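Let us work through a complete example step by step.
Step 1: write down the sequence.
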Amino acid sequence: MFNKIITTITFVIVALGLITNPINFKSYAIDEEPTDIELTFDTHDYDNKSIEELTQIRNRVLRKNISKVHDNEEEINYLFNATLSSEPFALLGYIKDNYYNLDEKRQIIKQIHLIDYANYAEDLIDPSGEYFKALDTYSQIDDFLVSKNKLNLRDLKDTDIVKDKYKFLIRNSEELISFCSIDEKSLMEPLVTSAFNIDSLLNDDQRQEIKSELDNKLSKNSDMEQIYNTLSEYENKDTYSPSLLMMQTTPSQYRSKALNFARKHGYSNNYNGGVPNFYVPSVGKNIQFYDFSNMGGDCANFVSMTMAYAGVDYWWKNGRSWYYYNINDRSPSWAGAGQFRWLFQYRVKAHYKFVKDDLSELRPATPISVLTNLGGGNYEAKHTLITTDRHSNGYNFSYAAHSDNGKRTNLLEKLKGREIKYYEIYW
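Step 2: predict the structure and record it as tokens.
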């Protein structure tokens, strides 16, 4: 139960919806098959429209989002089609996989609602990784605020309001959990990071207020306390130290092996020749790895695999870890984009960057977390990729990734207008 409580709290805080009048809502679990499904938002503006009319509305609001950064019509069309692909990490694929009980018309209405929320949050839609799961979560959190007539807590820019929003959600977390259809684990992560995120727009005092509210809530439920302890890795326990990167290889060897692996397996969303099996020095034997494409996304798993193949050792320190033995014995940071970012921003030197028109400071085989700010105060990683070849102009790269519909030949176009975190691995 606590799982969901924490989850809900965080996402709720950051979510900001699009409806201005409170209505009656009914949420449902997407893994259930109710006979009378209702969405968590008001649909009266769309109920009398045809599928053709709804499709036109969806296409219009999607192009509006893409055109915020991209002005090249060819690139806009490419991203438009990538977003509307049937891949599980794209918009249509995500809705079809997770809202299969809705008819075609209701699925399109849900798509419009998610795009509208992205536009409201001034966030660039990214058909990659775990983006649409995050967008859905924050959208439903905002729906909850609207249903509670807490329109004053929907502001995304005033950090005091964002702080108060988190505190409200923590105090009402059980009700929030019942309202949202998102799983507890996904709801929990943003709550915890809101109190500890070093890339947050909230100041130390605001984060401390959220943490105190969370501690007070958890103190009343021993089950919640136990789960909270497992999330303590999000707290700033130590600072970067060069010794944290165990030297199992040299920089040149790392780059050579990482690039060979990334080029072979990361220029499409499939593993060339099947999911790899290779020798891991810290284990002393070969490991058969796994494809997480149907388990929420394979982006962080692919990059972790690339790094391990290239000589980055498994790692444990102060409650943080990065390892994979089998599908049932692995660290959350191995295949989770958010946890990967949290682990490596402490393990090695990490840098924040808002991407405009230059990536010259990067190097080949540099892992990157693509950040999103859907809640107005907290940057979260929802996609992971790795650079490959530097272009002749010196400021752009090709890249390798899984769960990604982008052009692997143009990283600058992929990241333009986005925040990223990149990591000095064997620099």
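Step 3: interpret the result. The CA atoms of residues 27 and 178 lie 8 Å apart.
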